[in-house]
Amino acid sequence: MDDAAPLNRYQLAELGSLLAEPARAAMLLALVDGTARPAGELAHAAGITPATASAHLRRLLDGGLLAAYAQGRHRYYRLADERVAAMLESLSLARATAPRAWPTKADAQLRRARCCYRHLAGALGVAFCATLLRRDWLQTGSRGLFLRPDGAAALTASGLELTDVPSLYGRSCLDWTERRMHLGGPLGVMLTTAMLRAGWLRPLPHGRALQPGAGGLRQLGILGVPLD
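Now predict its structure.
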């Protein structure tokens, strides 16, 4: 996607047509967690044949919503960039115009903590971002949100292995279930990756929900993150 200029009506109509096909929408949603998947997996996620999936993937590539790369004999597809994931999350927010019940365990897990293009979203992601801001560990700079040295020191002391902190910036991302901001961008990805490596979080199978571990919840509580 090119964000250099606003979409004109023809580009917006083309984007709408790309998202209007349920099979293409299913393949895009399967990639919102930031993974790269082969065509066969995406065909299965969409409930269509590999030949049909191939045609849909070509349209999504041509429309700038997907990127592809080859690894050995296999070809993998992923979202073109984080802006596509943010757009899909925003559409989910627009669709959820009123509070809804979360009747299943899977829904509750997704709302509590999930991966949004490799960064932490859901109630836990919102609470974590709010704590960083409240403690003045996260500040706004010319390139976006950055982690101050005292914040990096506190997170490192809690057991997270942080990398490239001075060069990484994040962005605020409106959470579609909480209607508040969580931390996205490269900084959000790095912090979420550190939590996964430390065992604070673990991915649940068959989706993008994340399960907080007891040790992770304890450390987050020590950092001041409010936990329900």
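The chain has a mean pLDDT of 87.
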